[in-house]
């Protein structure tokens, strides 16, 4: 919650800025990619660690005014979490983790506000469509994969999040970005074994991209 307050405060500050402006008055298209650090948050998920994966996809920037743009995106996002195993001394053994992989096609619809030329903050809803789910009991090797059939899954096919982030665009179109997304509802289906379990997606993303 503190993270959300910090990002929201930065976004509101941007809305009141009078000196900022976008670097383009035309629609721009681009590509992006980066690293994900994802996990589930909630009262029932204390013994989980983040899964490290990646994201890659397409981005557009549609100017609304001198300093505000609409930024829709579509990208693959590797998410999920690591289940922490304990050794005989009740200490977490990071070499024995089980990785729960949840992969999505994410579609954020962001409002982007420039603080100064090149530097911007962004916020908006994000809609996720689950495309793959599996356990990996040997995440550091090629074995141990167990794909979960849709009929046996306890995880919803659709997820809604709020996305908050910042980016800096250099002359020529290259940009770097950082983003935090927080799930708004539990990922687990109703009328299943996990009904009532509090588990929401949480993802930190760091990446680079290029606007054409």
Describe it for me?
- A hairpin with a 4-residue loop joins strand 7 (158-169) and strand 8.
- This protein has one helix and nine strands; from the N terminus they run H-E-E-E-E-E-E-E-E-E.
- It has one domain (2-211): Porin, CATH 2.40.160.20.
- The longest helix is centred in the first third of the chain and has 15 residues, at 2-16.
- 7% of the residues lie in helices and 61% in strands.
- With 212 residues, it is mostly beta strands.
- An eight-stranded antiparallel β-barrel has the order 1-2-3-4-5-7-8-9.
What is the molecular shape? elongated
Q: Distance between termini?
A: 36 Å
- Annotation field: number of helices: 1
Low-confidence stretches: 14-21, 86-92
DSSP strand content: over 45%
Query: What is the chain-wise order of helices and strands?
Result: HEEEEEEEEE
Mean pLDDT, rounded to whole units?
A: 84
Largest β sheet strand count, sense and barrel closure: 8 strands, antiparallel, barrel
Main-sheet strand order equals 1-2-3-4-5-7-8-9
CATH-assigned fold name:
Porin
Any idea of the CATH class? Mainly Beta
Radius of gyration using CA atoms only: 19 Å
């Amino acid at each position: 919650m503190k993270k959300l307050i910090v990002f929201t405060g930065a976004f509101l500050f941007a809305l009141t800025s009078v000196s900022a402006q976008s670097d383009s008055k035309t629609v721009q298209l681009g590509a992006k990619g980066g690293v994900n650090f994802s996990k589930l948050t909630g009262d029932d998920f204390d013994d989980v660690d983040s899964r490290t994966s990646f994201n890659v996809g397409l981005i557009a920037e549609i100017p609304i005014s001198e300093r505000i743009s609409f930024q829709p995106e579509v990208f693959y996002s590797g998410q999920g979490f690591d289940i922490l195993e304990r050794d005989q001394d009740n200490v977490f053994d990071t070499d024995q983790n089980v990785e729960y992989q949840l992969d999505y096609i994410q579609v954020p619809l962001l409002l982007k506000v420039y603080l100064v030329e090149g530097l911007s903050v962004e916020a908006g809803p994000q809609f996720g469509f689950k495309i793959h789910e599996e356990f990996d009991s040997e995440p550091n090797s090629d074995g141990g994969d167990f794909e979960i059939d849709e009929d046996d899954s306890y995880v919803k096919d659709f997820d809604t999040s709020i996305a908050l982030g910042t980016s800096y665009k250099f002359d020529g179109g290259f940009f770097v970005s950082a983003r935090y997304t927080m799930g708004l509802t539990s990922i687990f289906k109703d009328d299943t074994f996990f009904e009532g379990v509090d588990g929401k997606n949480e993802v930190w993303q760091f990446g680079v991209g290029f606007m054409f």
